[in-house]
Amino acid sequence: MMMECTSLQFVSPFAFEAMQKVDVVRLASLSDPELRLLLPCLVRMALCAPADQSQSWAQDKKLILRLLSGVEAVNSIVALLSVDFHALEQDASKEQQLRHKLGGGGGESILVSQLQHGLTLEFEHSDSPRRLRLVLSELLAIMNKVSESNGEFFFKSSELFESPVYLEEAADVLCILQAVCRGLIKNGERQDEESLGGRRRTDALRFLCKMNPSQALKVRGMVVEECHLPGLGVALTLDHTKNEACEDGVSDLVCFVSGLLLGTNAKVRTWFGTFIRNGQQRKRETSSSVLWQMRRQLLLELMGILPTVRSTRIVEEADVEMEPTVSVYSGLKEEHVVKASALLRLYCALMGIAGLKPTEEEAEQLLQLMTSRPPATPAGVRFVSLSFCMLLAFSMLVSTPEQEQLMVVWLSWMIKEEAYFESTSGVSASFGEMLLLVAMYFHSNQLSAIIDLVCSTLGMKIVIKPSSLSRMKTIFTQEIFTEQVVTAHAVRVPVTSNLSANITGFLPIHCIYQLLRSRSFTKHKVSIKDWIYRQLCETSTPLHPQLLPLIDVYINSILTPASKSNPEATNQPVTEQEILNIFQEVIGGDSIRLNQRFSITAQLLVLYYILSYEEALLANTKTLAAMQRKPKSYSSSLMDQIPIKFLIRQAQGLQQELGGLHSALLRLLATNYPHLCIVDDWICEEEITGTDALLRRMLLTNNAKIHSPKQLQEAFSAIPVSHTQVMQIIEHLTLLSASELIPYAGVLTSNMNQLLNSGVPRRILQTVNKLWMVLNTVMPRRLWVMTVNALQPSIKFVRQQKYTQNDLMIDPLIVLRCDPRVHRCPPLMDITLHMLNGYLLASKAYLSAHLKETAEQDRPSQNNTIGLVGQTDAPEVTREELKNALLAAQDSAAVQILLEICLPTEEEKAKGVSPDSLLRSVQSVITTSMPNKELEEGEDNLLCNLREVQCLICCLLHQMYIADPNIAKLVHFQGYPCELLPLTVAGIPSMHICLDFIPELIAQPELEKQIFAIQLLSHLCIQYALPKSLSVARLAVNVMGTLLTVLTQAKRYAFFMPTLPSLVSFCRAFPPLYEDIMSLLIQIGQVCASDVATQTRDIDPIITRLQQIKEKPSGWSQICKVSSYKNGSRDAGSMDPDVQLCHCIESTIIEIINMSVSGI
């Protein structure tokens, strides 16, 4: 369509800029050929009315006219501009419609009439308007052909445009008609190097951009945006790179191509990768190929930053005769390191993503660059890491023995210089760790892990075949890093100072982790314990994600041997003294020191290690016993000294920085230390650390800070004389945080016994309780032991025993062997119950752990003596049952003791206090009809210490029953004083679960249990009038009827005398049982009366009354309502059991009748 343009003259950037800025001085300096190219624009500018009416533009316009006056061609251009463009536009539109309708380029034309000569002759002989029409007609014919070709390139010969004689005139006409770059790009080919049209389009746009270099980058942006003409984008970049002439910095070509291949736009990446692949498939790559030009430019840039030119032959000589520091290995200049890294990444992307196959020259120069030695800077560390990963990813770059030797020498240099680089550059994540890590992966044949490592370091996802790593594996495992060398070297690697998630890259911890997984340390008898301990001590937040997996795999290497043949091949655990050193500051109550030696992160990690170790030790007990191994467990004294709850609370405030450590610690705590996970404690912590606590801290004065534990002790000593000082100090202490209260814990607990004396204000007791609960959130175990020892009963001439944490876990009931005065001091009783609940939970965990520890001790002997198959597990089952029985006995004993505490003492009984009266007082306070005097008496009863203690005990029993309903069943099968039944049923909300086992309790052969079951049921029916209660009550009535027929006289009296009042409760709760209960009472009365009649041969008046009541109960209701009927007064003195039972039956019936008539 257009002739070859090699001989054509184009507008220079200088001329274009002068024209663009209308710089008349620069335009006047142009030569005639250069000025000729600008004539159409200059003539238009001179003739058209300007928008700028300033004086300066008027002067410039005169100069332009003067400039044009000497050029002959101006006249023809003026004639072109004098055409009626409106008419020309209308004819062009009609011409375009006509050609579209006819569907071809030939035929009639509206713009020009039939040509009598050729197009060139017609153009020569025509005037200016006709010349415009001829060129426009030819352009429309070409445009119509383009639309028919559906965007495909085609070649069309044009006599007018290919004639060099009329090229200038045709160009003038085209300048008048104009064109746009975006259209050329948008309609261009996706791969311009593949077709003639693409190359022509690229050349045209490239020349346009050379004319105006400032627009080159915008055109390149259009190329990338449309994903068309990739060769044009590269060509424009090459032109721009040559213009900028930057030697040290990263060139625009490297940045542009790297952005295309390593950017986030997958479409652009695929488009440019196709350009590279297609360019390589062409058999011949000439210098005119844009791809060839790009590769050549990149190679020149690479060679430009290489150190001294080296050959692989020199390496061999140097390896034998020279030191590694000779000049043949001169280092990479510091100013070239960043550019070298960018070039390496670009070549990785070209080869790994775009599929570029390097030439021998490119491979040789790349290897020279990769094996160069950069300075010890962070950029140098990055360069070495990239070079190493590139060697792993593209092993085909090393093809000859000389090149392989060069690579081995360079790797040896890396190993030797790694420590120097790390110390000088200040970068913790050095390439030495990466070398170790790759060596370990090769030894364990984890090739996929190496591929992931390479891709991560290079920052791109490339395809690496595992088979391509075979030679590198041989070099690493046999020549450079044997497994023994790896383990010995890893231990000597310094730990990472202040290791945190902010330190990225490959660190020593990654290497140690892999070596622990492969059991290399135990295999080669290299101790790693000290290194791990030092690294745990050198940690900070945010937590590095590799720390927890490192601890887990380390624990596994301690407990599990590397092989069954060598059971002693294990790592050593951290010693107890090393653990205590980390916690020394918080153990001493010095938890708020600003400059702590060990960070909270280190303390939490060591705590995680201890808890995980103990859990893993218990979980692997059977396996270890089978291997006849018994790793040492950490002592209970060590665990007692570690402030677990304090550390957990610290971790709670750092959950974001600690990652998964906080949740992992909570899981271990719930499993091994359930007494530190009591729900009430968590709720209490929320109150202590909430908004109210923050407001209280704002009120904190200097007075609260100046009170020392010694002053608090002096104030407690003065309690018998004055309470004011103690009250003032402990009120100030409530404003302190939990950690700040730790130094006062010993004084507070040791003086609790003094608070039991009479006359101590209730406010002091409540404040001490509050302080104790705050301390309980940070140091519960130590606090509990101190409190239990402080509350022991003081007996003269008897030395008090000091209990330990272990004593209290073995026997939690020690807590209840406190001073009896505690039982009537609600604030201290609240503390006691809290400790009891905790130690009951701790005892369960302790016994379960003890069972696992000793489960296999007696199995060998039992297996030898018991030779039957299937009986080997019998001892373990028996031990589990014994443990459960012991725990059940322990819990039930605690409940029975607590219930006994609820009973009034002899002194309280003398004052008329009883559980039943207390319950009645509660019910009477609820009613509004009682007199004021009775109301005051009820309030007095409710506000007594016994009543408050009973409420606290009932709350604890409710929690225990909910946690394990079997405890409730066991306690009620054991029984307790019936006078406590009103209290337990009304005060323990979970007592309704007793309805499930009352039928079983009634079925017991012991008469006492049957009586207790019916009495319990009577109270439950009143409290829970449910369908289930009705069915159980009906069962109880039937059982009573059955027992009437089988019991002897003595047992009948013993059974029915306490159970007959329960029938009144049944009727009150469930009126439908009235008929059955009345029939039962009459039947009991008849049996008793018949016995009396047979003995005395006298008809007792009671029999007559019972018979009348049976026949006409309604008539007796009036008698009962009118007066309090006196039952058998003449028989009141009779001691006969049947007579007494008859009187009791009569009283029961009358009470039921009164209740039914009054509607109560």
UniProtKB/TrEMBL annotation:
UniProt similarity note: Belongs to the Integrator subunit 2 family.
Tagged with keyword DNA damage: no
Organism classification: Eukaryota, Metazoa, Chordata, Craniata, Vertebrata
Keywords of this entry: Nucleus
Domain of life where this protein originates: Eukaryota
Biological process, per Gene Ontology: snRNA 3'-end processing
Protein's name in the database: Integrator complex subunit 2
Localisation: Nucleus
